[in-house]
Design a protein that fits this description.
By secondary structure, the protein is an alpha+beta fold. It is built from 19 helices and 34 strands. Strands 1, 7, 8, 9, 10, 12, 13, 16, 20 and 23 form a ten-stranded antiparallel beta sheet that branches.
């Protein structure tokens, strides 16, 4: 039994009054300037500790030594071809991960930039599949305040000066700036997709400053949620007795993270200049109103010898609080030389009267319109459907963000308010539910305009889409669109938006090296905002920033509840992609690293592990540790997800489209029923999502998924008119359920597997994953209620509460004697997403108290101040001592499975029911799922194949 109490007593509330004075909160009680009552909070002077990564034990290392050698060889081979292996445990980032993350910027699928809770811009993912965690320290907001005729001045970067290399007085670069903020009286408040930073009298004791960060992540809005832009709204309250001139400065380096700012050939130029078609352009802008004046500095450098140095720029702002208006007339700068960094600055100035208020809004936008996968095709990102591919896209995005952010906030609040106001839900759950959605922005997402798919071409010397990726920095006044309104002190008007565009001459290519429904009444709404047509494009997201595989399906099984509830059209399109893949085959030869054997990349009938890495959709199964065509969980997971989505949306066209793949996936699994008892058997290797945890015979995890898949397939077949297949599944289910319980039920839970190994009787936290989906889809329970509750109670008592008193989540495996199952690396790990899934299962079983205690362990260990620092980078797993494996991971989105369980959609509650225990008199000869029946409605020809894909589709 694992004991210890490393955490303080549980808190029930984190009121803003604990972080901000009541007087300051009252001053900000307008225009959304005050942080919400429910939010994740930190002080800016909080220590950002270095995170500790897991390590394998000596015993585990011995077991994996051959795999390690083969994997090392494969990583080197890929590097020799200029490619990054999808799994590379040998290469370490130069920037060590730390507890410094915050809410990321922008919408989904257009490249992302994260912003740490202390204000630094970091975690750059502009190029698909690459992530540079290092902050670009020249990217900052700063403030300059002048009072009493200039006799009293304050100047400071609005971020604590706790970074290496700062404070060098002789430097001409950013070290010469005023890093005067201690952060002691400044706080950060996160409620994705917004964040608030409150400067409560820093650096001027009489000036209260609120910065509100807003990104267009808006459920069911398939247009604005694709936009690569963010807005920063500063609210200034002068609590002093004299008026103050306040200037805010936004500086931005010509960089996409890492050392890209040193690569040379970067250009800064005014907004009004338009030439070429660059794949990456940045724009920074500010809203100019009747009382806010905007000026710009198109170009400055960080080293001595620059035409304007960072020191000179800073001194100009300290002296005048603005730049020269003539700068708007500047032409393009000279291209930068290698090793030289170009930066730009936008300043917005206003007089704030004594006891007065003022609002100043900035925007940041970036445009990387076309992406090129290293081995495959080029695509246009989703937002180009609305903004085009020219360099002006970033400028228009920056302008429109300043125009539209109030509507975005209104839509966000309308979405979030019902949950935030539900007093039955724990406070930690409310804000963690929203904050875990960070992954849909920062998880390497790619969202493309599918209308251009037919014109894509395979890679080749003559067919590559070449891009010139300039980063321009310039500023020129852009006239405000008719009807645009900006507000300040109840005075409306808009003189325009002004800013700087940055272009970078770099090809945007992946680098070549380097509670139950009866208790909760809120239901899911399926009315999506309409685009010009119903096509919402195609969507990819990574398994994790360390496991570079698109839409890893065994993990999407857990994460997909978030997409289904918030962007159901995207979720259906992902399922369509996998349905087409099921009916396809790729005969190219692949070496599987665990055993060193060979096979083909994709077998017809098998659900692929992922959609690929370097050529998604066309070269699937980038994962090559095991032959996933022999995995026992992928096909059942496909059937379960498809049925859940079909039942929830009521989309009959979707059901008809994917049914041939569903039936094929079920038929494919027949080969794994070795003894004709209706159950699939595991094959003595880790043939499941737990790909280091060996399974023998029938397993509780895969067996339960199979039972659920039989039920889901029967229900879907019945609704689509394939009655023969429905009855066949029902017959097989009857026998399989009997065999499953006979082989695994021990009176209180289901054993890990039916083998005779030392861990065969282990208590697996995820043993009822199939029941989770069955209940989530409105189907009948797989087992008697007392068995479901008994197993979940056992998991709660052992896997949850015997690990640090329930303050870390559910450990994957636990022996019945109360000791953690240490038979392999994964059995002793706590998987964050699985813990959320177990909690969702408990909610569906009427065990709400146990559910929230279970999930709260993830919050305490990962998100609380007493925890390990994994906020906005929730890992796949941590060990009992808190060491992580695979940061920024997909599976924790499973927290939305909890919300699904609390508010089952009406469509599912009212879906037709099927009684699986009504035995149908079918002769034994017809038990095979693969038999055909002439009376079945013909719908297979409605499924679409892959077109010009390299895969051989036999649908």
């Amino acid at each position: 039994m694992v004991t210890g109490n490393i955490f303080h007593c549980r808190k029930n509330s984190w009121p803003p009054e604990e972080y901000i004075s009541r007087n300051t909160l009252q001053l900000f009680d307008f225009d959304s300037a005050a942080p919400p009552k429910q939010a994740w909070r930190r002080r800016l002077n909080s220590h950002a500790n270095i995170l500790k990564e897991f390590s394998v034990t000596f015993k585990e290392a011995i077991k994996m030594v051959r795999l390690g050698i083969r994997l090392w060889s494969y990583v080197r081979e890929e590097a020799s071809h200029g490619r990054k292996a999808p799994i590379d445990p040998f290469t370490r980032e130069s920037c060590k991960p730390s507890a410094s993350q915050g809410v990321p910027l922008g919408g989904m699928g257009s490249g992302s930039i994260s912003r740490g809770f202390r204000g630094e811009f970091r975690q750059w993912q502009i190029v698909p599949g690459t992530c540079d965690a290092s902050p670009v320290m020249a990217n900052q907001f700063s403030i300059f305040i002048s009072r009493d005729g200039g006799n009293k001045k304050y100047a400071s970067v609005l971020a604590p000066g706790q970074h290496e290399g700062l404070g060098k007085a002789s430097d001409e670069g950013i070290s010469s700036w005023g890093w005067n903020l201690s952060g002691q009286h400044s706080t950060y408040h996160a409620l994705f997709p917004r964040a608030w930073t409150i400067y409560d009298g820093e650096p001027d004791p009489d000036l209260k400053v609120s910065c509100r960060q807003i990104s267009p992540f808006i459920p069911h809005n398939y247009r604005d949620s694709s936009l690569p832009t963010a807005v920063f709204v500063y609210t200034l309250v002068n609590a002093g007795k004299e008026r103050a001139k306040v200037s805010l400065l936004f500086t931005w380096a010509n960089s996409i993270g890492g050392s890209s700012h040193l690569s040379g050939d970067h250009v800064n130029e005014p907004f009004m200049t338009a030439k070429g078609n660059p794949p990456v352009t940045f724009a920074v802008a500010a809203s100019e109103t009747q009382n806010v004046s905007v000026t710009v500095l198109p170009c400055f450098g960080l080293t001595e010898g620059s035409s304007v140095t960072a020191r000179e720029m800073w001194d100009k702002m300290v002296q005048d609080g603005q730049f020269d208006r003539e700068n708007f007339n500047c032409g393009p700068s000279m291209p930068s030389s290698p090793g030289e960094t170009l930066c730009a600055a936008v300043s917005a100035s206003a007089w704030v009267e004594a006891h007065g208020k003022c609002t100043i809004a900035f925007s940041l936008a970036w445009s990387s319109p076309k992406i090129k996968f290293l081995k495959g095709s080029s695509y246009r990102r989703r937002y180009t459907k609305f903004y085009g591919t020219s360099e002006r896209a970033a400028l228009n995005l920056a302008h429109d963000a300043l125009t539209n952010y109030k509507q975005w906030e209104e839509d966000i609040e309308k979405w979030q308010s019902p949950i935030l106001m539900d007093e039955r839900l724990p406070e930690w759950y409310k804000f963690t539910l929203f904050n875990e959605l960070y992954f849909l922005v920062a998880g390497g997402t790619v969202w493309i305009d599918s209308s251009l798919l037919s014109s894509n071409v395979k890679s080749g010397e003559d067919s590559l889409i070449k891009e010139s990726l300039d980063v321009k920095v310039t500023e020129a006044e852009v006239k405000c669109r008719r009807g645009t309104v900006f507000e300040r002190n109840s005075t409306s008007g808009c003189n325009g938006s002004a800013g700087v565009g940055l272009k970078q001459n770099r090809v945007s290519t992946i680098p070549q090296n380097k509670g139950s429904s009866k208790n909760f009444s809120q239901h899911l709404k399926w009315q999506d905002q309409q685009d010009d047509n119903d096509d919402v494009g195609r969507f990819l997201y990574l398994e994790g920033v360390e496991y570079i595989m698109w839409c890893t399906y065994d993990v999407h099984f857990y994460a997909s509840f978030a997409l289904l509830e918030l962007f159901p059209k995207i979720e259906l399109n992902i399922q369509r992609d996998f349905a087409k893949a099921v009916l396809s085959e790729d005969g190219r030869r692949v070496k599987f690293l665990a055993e060193g054997n060979y096979g083909i990349r994709k077998v017809r009938g098998a659900v692929p592990h992922d959609l690929g890495t370097h050529d998604p959709w066309d070269e699937m199964n980038a994962y090559n540790i095991h032959d996933t065509s022999k995995w026992k969980d992928l096909n059942p997971k496909f059937v379960l997800q498809v049925y859940r989505d079909f039942a929830a949306t009521g989309d009959m066209a979707f059901g008809v489209d994917v049914w041939p793949a569903v039936r094929t996936a079920m038929e494919y699994m027949e080969q794994f029923d070795r003894d004709d008892d209706g159950l699939v058997e595991n094959d003595g290797f880790p043939d499941q999502t737990y790909d280091a945890w060996t399974v023998h015979g029938v397993s509780s995890y895969c067996g339960c998924l199979w039972l659920a898949a039989l039920q889901a397939a029967a229900a879907m077949a019945q609704q689509l008119g394939d009655k023969f297949f429905a009855e066949t599944c029902k017959s097989k289910f009857f026998d399989a359920k009997s065999a499953f319980e006979k082989k695994l039920w021990n009176g209180s839970y289901f054993n890990y597997d039916s083998g005779s190994s030392s861990n065969s009787k282990s208590i697996q936290a995820d043993q009822l994953a199939g029941q989770w989906y069955t209940a989530s889809s409105g189907l009948a329970p797989l087992f008697e209620e007392f068995k479901i509750k008994s197993a979940l109670q056992k998991i709660y008592d052992f896997n949850v509460m015997k690990v640090k008193g329930g303050r870390m989540g559910a450990v994957n495996g636990m022996h019945p004697n109360g000791k953690v199952d240490e038979s392999c690396m994964q059995s002793r790990e706590i998987w964050t997403g699985v813990t959320y899934a177990v909690a969702a299962n408990m909610i569906l079983a009427g065990m709400e108290d146990e559910a929230f205690t279970t999930a709260e362990g993830i919050f305490i260990a990962g998100w609380s101040e007493e925890g390990f620092g994994y906020w906005f980078q929730t890992p796949e797993a941590w060990t009992i001592d808190g060491h992580f494996r695979s940061l920024i991971y997909m599976r924790p989105l499973a927290i939305w499975g909890m919300q699904w369980a609390l508010s089952i959609p009406k469509a599912i509650l009212e879906a037709p029911k099927i009684n699986m225990m009504d035995r149908i008199l079918i002769s034994p000869a017809t038990f095979s799922l693969s038999l055909t029946e002439t009376g079945v409605r013909k719908i297979a020809d409605k499924a679409k194949c892959f077109g010009n894909s390299v895969l051989q589709c036999s649908c």
